[in-house]
């Protein structure tokens, strides 16, 4: 049974930082592309960032480039999202997601590409 468990969310002032973690179990972590996807109530999901199987390839949505960094530790089955210079518009529920891929390559942050999802961790940025 695949499980993805996020942690690290919270309440922070604008300009602050948070580090999200996603710990995976029940899968061969290094065989999966991983992504962080966020959602605000009443709005659709937005793919924030993704990372290839061994971390060589990454993608960021324009609104977070230069502020967020995605990484993974395959030995620990853990995905990270370092979020700096947070803005109120970053407020959302952040979920990690996984999709099995056959080879290392580019990833997509489109939510419909992903098979497994965590429950999410809430990030709230106050002005």
Commentary on this structure:
- The protein is an all-beta fold and about 130 residues long.
- About 0% of the residues lie in helices and about 50% in strands.
- It is built from no helices and eleven strands.
- Strands 2, 4, 5, 6, 9, 10 and 11 form a seven-stranded mixed β-sheet that branches. A four-stranded antiparallel β-sheet has the order 1-3-8-7, with no helix packed on it.
- A hairpin with a 4-residue loop joins strand 7 and strand 8.
- The mean pLDDT is about 95.
Percentage of residues in helical conformation: under 10%
Q: What low-confidence regions span 5 or more consecutive residues with pLDDT below 50?
A: none
Rounded mean pLDDT score = 97
Order of helices and strands: EEEEEEEEEEE
The number of E-state strands comes to: 11
Major beta sheet summary: 7 strands, mixed
Shape: globular
Terminus-to-terminus distance: 40 Å
Rg, rounded, reads 13 Å
| Estimated share of beta-strand residues | over 45%
Q: DSSP helix count? A: 0
Oligomer class: single chain
What would you call the structural class? mainly beta
Task: Give a quick set of tags describing it.
single chain; mainly beta
């Amino acid at each position: 049974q695949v499980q993805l468990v996020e942690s690290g969310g919270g309440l922070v002032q604008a300009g602050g930082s948070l580090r999200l973690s996603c710990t995976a179990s029940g899968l061969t972590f290094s065989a999966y592309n991983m992504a962080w996807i966020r959602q605000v109530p009443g709005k659709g999901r937005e793919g924030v960032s993704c990372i290839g199987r061994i971390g060589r390839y990454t993608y960021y949505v324009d609104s977070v480039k230069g502020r967020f960094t995605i990484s993974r530790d395959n030995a620990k089955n853990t995905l990270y999202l370092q979020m700096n210079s947070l803005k109120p518009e970053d407020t959302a529920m952040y979920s990690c997601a996984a999709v099995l891929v056959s080879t290392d390559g580019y990833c997509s942050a489109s939510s419909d590409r992903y098979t497994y999802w965590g429950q999410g961790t809430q990030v709230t940025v106050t002005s």
